[in-house]
Amino acid sequence: MSDCSSGSCGSGGEKGKASAKMVIQDEMIRSTLQKIKYKLFIMSGKGGVGKSSVSVNVAAALAAKGYKVGLLDVDIHGPSVPTLLGLSGTLDIDRGSLIMPKKYNENLHVVSMESLLKDPDQAVLWRGPMKTSAIRQFVSDVQWGKLDFLVVDSPPGTGDEPMTVLKTVPEALCVVVTTPQEVSLSDVRKSINFLQYARANVLGVVENMSGLVCPHCHESIDLFKKGGGRDLAERYGLEFLGAIPLDPATVVAGDMGMPVVLLEEESFAKRAFIQLADTIAEAAQKSLEAASTNT
């Protein structure tokens, strides 16, 4: 039996407590994920490609089809999901100390870093370990319940947040978002290399801002070129999930705090996002069937 009277074993005791806490949290994460059928990880190597817009509209479209959907925004420094959904206020905690996600509608519930801040304009000055801890808590300490889909919206790049998501949710199906022009594709290629290195499950590629639809003549203008996302998918042997055009309706809907897929008016973007949600749901189902067949 070691002598701790001098305090020399104090650090070991603290490490033991931290380790035990990690084991408990790991078990809570496993318990949470077991109740979620499909985990979608929406990511990109470049900012400004409309990744959050894709996440929000895919989640809303799936929820509108009757699926139970959770939307998790892990962009610690620049969360935009609450703005796109018109959500405000902080999250509630139930009597069991679990965090309750924000209810957008009966089938869609949301958790974002912004909902944990008293002031949404407050800057979050966190480094790697704190971001890792927060993302793990977003899974372990949130009362997600039984879900058909958990859609995770990640910040751009291949840093702490994407790495933590893939480690915390190893069965996540990754959807890579790009725009057609080369400045975006070059960064997204790095993301695909990152996913391959991490041995992640890549569901496919989405090309956002794929042409501009004129609101008057309804003709498509190749503002940022077109087809780069499809070419990228073919180059890496990935499925091309769909193309979303630039559409003024998306901007209007975002400013209103409503996904374009839930607007009553028909639009090119609405139709494209609904088709994308159908394609993703079908691809996720095939992926799960393939995984069960191989095991």
How are the SSEs ordered, and which strands pair?
Blueprint: H1 10-34, E1 36-43, H2 51-64, E2 69-73, H3 81-85, E3 92-93, E4 99-100, E5 102-105, E6 108-112, H4 128-140, E7 147-153, H5 160-168, E8 173-178, H6 182-197, E9 201-213, E10 220-221, H7 228-236, E11 240-246, H8 248-256, H9 268-294
Parallel strand pairs: 1-7, 1-8, 2-6, 2-7, 8-9, 9-11
Antiparallel strand pairs: 3-4, 5-6, 9-10
Explain what the structure shows.
- The longest helix is centred in the C-terminal third of the chain and has 27 residues.
- The model has no long low-confidence stretch (mean pLDDT 86).
- The chain is 43% helix and 21% strand.
- It is an alpha/beta fold and 295 residues long.
- A hairpin with a 6-residue loop joins β9 and β10.
Described by strand count, sense and barrel closure, the largest sheet is: 9 strands, mixed
Oligomeric state of the chains in view: single chain
Q: Estimate what percentage of residues fall within beta strands.
A: 15-25%
Mean pLDDT reading: 86
Unreliable segments (pLDDT under 50, ≥5 consecutive)? none
The helix/strand series, from N terminus to C terminus, equals: HEHEHEEEEHEHEHEEHEHH
- How many β strands by DSSP? 11
* Structural class computed from helices and strand pairing: alpha/beta
Distance between the termini: 46 Å
- What overall geometry do the principal axes of the alpha carbons give? globular
The level of helicity is 40-55%
